[in-house]
Amino acid sequence: MNKLIIGNFKMNTTPKEFKxxxxxxxxxxxxxxxxxxVCPPFTHLSVAKEILSGSNVEYGAQNICEEEKGAFTGEVxxxxxxxxxxSYVIVGHSERRAKFKETDRLINKKIKTALANGLKVILCVGxxxxxxxxxxxxxxxxxxxxxxxxxxxxxxxxxxxxxYEPVWAIGxxxxxxxxxxxxxxxVIRKEIENQFSAKAAQSINVLYGGSVNISNYKNIIxxxxxxxxxxxxxxxxxxxxxxxxxxxx
Length: 249
What we know:
single chain; 249 residues; alpha/beta; eight-stranded parallel sheet
């Protein structure tokens, strides 16, 4: 089964380094049956356009402003991202929620702005350790989905990918088990069914993102409950990332 494999570079590499990476990745991913996407920093998107256009590796941004244009110093609009050839944008990443205090209301607006400008959205949801240990994880994630997708039409979900990223399993040394992942994906799909329809729940892509690396990716991504993975630090190594991207399941 084909999978969607997304690399999130976060604030790493220079444009020059990313150019070398992109040339290598485009070559190494020739013939892969999976859908491969890289999301580098904003400063690298013109490089991505130069190198990855015409390859089977797509690219996207890590964030956008919720507004179309105006006096928002330091922000980048969806239209700017789209003009550089980006196909995707990550919205609601746990780091944006925690470090930059992004609310579900803001995330909802960003999703609508991205879709209106022809970008596909990678919506991140997931609970922290305290929420999980209090056995509130399912309730928490359901509420995130309710608020983040509020006011959307079912046909708009065609442009949305959901990435379940348990905050407690990111850079902590803790790992989600197959049972943990499968159970939460069931929660996510059930909530999509409640909000939209059973058809929407079955057709939407749900990824896993929580310390996926070259050592554990087979056990994680081979899980039939998920449609792929959002990979952070491990995507910075082009050899490792391309191995994951080429894997058939």
